[in-house]
Amino acid sequence: MNVIDIDAYRMAQVIKQSWAEAEDLVIGSSSRSSIQQIEKAITGRTASRWLLKLGFKWKEVKKGVYNDGHERDDVVGYRKEVFLPFLKSVESRLMEWDENLIPIPTQLVLDGDIEALIIVTHDKYTFNANDGKRFVWTHEEHNPIRKKGRGQGLHVSELLTPIGRLGGGKACEILKCGGDVWWDGAKLLEQVLTKAIPAFEEGFPGCQVLFMFDNAKSHIKYVEDALRVSKMNLEDGGKNARPMRATFVADITHPEGGWLQSLVREDGTPKGLRTVLSERNLWPTTCRRFLTQCSIKTSSGKSKPNPDCLKGGHCCAWGLLALQLDFEAQKGEQQETIEKAGHLVLFYPPFHCEINFIEYFWEAAKRYTCEHCEYDFPSLKRLVPKAMEQIPNQVIWKYANRAKRIIKAYDTGAIYGSESYKSIVSTKYKSHRRVSNV
After folding, report:
1. Could you tell me the domains of the chain?
2. Is residue 14 over pLDDT 80?
3. Which residues pair with 250 in a beta bridge?
4. How big is the CA angle at 159 (ends 158 and 161), to the nearest 5 degrees?
5. Which of 12, 39, 292, 294 could bond to 306 as cystine, CB 3.0-4.6 Å?
């Protein structure tokens, strides 16, 4: 049923007709005269209850559009096949702390067999000068006058450990945003290399970092010479082709287990898909025409390149080369650089901000700036550092533990927001003296 611009009153007016007529009910286009012709069927209150049962929600209409993608196939696949297995594989190395922030190292770490692994989570947030309280006590004769717009903003890039801000805030970056000044992947990488890693090694000597970032496109940007099928033409050279690094091709028939393949010709021209696949004995000789990339039909009937080919397949040249181990293992610049420095990187699943415990940190900091807002930029510059400093380390530890419970819920197969999910993540209180399920 497709319902547009509907409320309970109008639903009640047309509900009788909707039971007998077509499944598609478009209220927004109904004229007032046609509604008046329909005799009253049910009350608005009854219609409201039925709308709730049908999955509708009564909420404020906003300009922004958000679609919950927690259970989208590709998101669930990444969560189950990459994210959760990775955390499971390093679980024995992860350092934990008690409620007094005293370390609880695992037995393997105590024995000296492995170095402890500590999570450092990252996120960025924007504070604006005119972000004040949304609800205040006012007298009927005196309404507060607010400035228009959100005002100038400060962009904050912060990193947290489970027991507080990394380096006590030394790794934090704050910059005035707007115009041509915005936070990007290059600035983040510089922050990690020049501030985050030195602050970590100073505060946690002999330990290794597990950096955790969200799945933003800027975090998975590739270096210029990365192995990327999408930057290759079918034939050598051509428009938009770029030189790529030499790569090791695994081959069990080779005496050394493989061989080094150059992806540029002697004159510096980038090799094309046909040349690279032929040198690997992968170019099909029986096929009369092997496409560079498959195409799919859009809703308008036009053809466009199939993005699924980049995930690998035998349907076209792009798909076939994307299946090869060296191209499949290519990592983004951020992950590649951090791992060369001796640390690990893991990206959160898309739409899973509840797993990143820094989100609760931002909520507390934002609440502070809103409560103390003075509606000017100089006061914002003073408030933002203070808002982050006033959050106790014990509270950050609680945020991290909540995120751990959420990860545990997903590991059991619970669906976001379900009763099984809530039973693991939240504590239910029967009264102010009794806790259920204990």
Report:
1. 8-53 (no CATH), 73-135+150-221+336-425 (3.30.420.10), 239-331 (no CATH)
2. no
3. 258
4. 145
5. 294
User: pLDDT band at 96, cuts 50/70/90?
Assistant: very high
Q: What is the pTM of this model?
A: 0.77
From CA 89, how far away is CA 97, in angstroms rounded? 20
For the chain, the straight-line distance linking the first and the last C-alpha, in angstroms and rounded, comes to 44
The pairing of strands 295-297 and 153-161 is: unpaired
pLDDT tens-digit series, residues 240-274: 888 999 999 988 888 888 999 999 999 999 999 99
Give the distance from CA 94 to its chain's centroid.
22
Which residue is associated with the tokens 């969560």?
A: 79
Strands 173-177 and 303-305: unpaired
Reduced to 3 states, what is the DSSP secondary structure of residue 382?
helix
The percentage of the chain sitting over the pLDDT mark of 70, rounded to a whole number, equals: 82
Antiparallel, parallel or unpaired: β 153-161 and 117-128: antiparallel
| Length of the chain measured in residues | 438
- Evaluate the CA torsion angle 254, 260, 266, 271 in order and state its sign: positive
